[in-house]
Amino acid sequence: MKHLVYCVLRSDVTAPAEKLPAGVCAEEVAIAACNGLAAAYSVVPETCAAPDASQVMAYAEVIKAFHDVQAVLPMRYGCLLDSEAQIVEFLYGQARQFKASLDELDGCAEMGVRVLLGGEGESTLKDLHCETGPLSGRAYVACRAAFRSACRE
What we know:
Elements: E1 2-10, E2 30-34, E3 37-44, H1 53-67, E4 73-74, E5 80-81, H2 84-93, H3 95-105, H4 137-152
Antiparallel strand pairs: 1-3, 1-4, 1-5, 2-3
């Protein structure tokens, strides 16, 4: 069994508003803390090292649950350690860097900017007829698909 690390966060962990989702391979998510930092992890079989789509989605859901309540440093999928003691060592050894990164990210939101150049035959933002207000990524893609479908007709 290995310890799959999802993300690093401050040790004053605020519990997610909703129940924490199950981790990869439906394993329970635990917290290891050291030196003002914490890591969310699950104990998983080594077969989880090469993930399928459902495992990657479960991994992302755990990170999102923590990110919804505080700044996190997500780990790449496959950050596997042998024990909780190794996780604590990892946090201790990288404490200065992790704390600086969390301070920098605190209060930030992830955003993207897309520039559409207008021109003959090219769509512009005014061509995109969607509900007003912020769109989730999924809603934006669905809206773009509907727009493109309407343009082909």
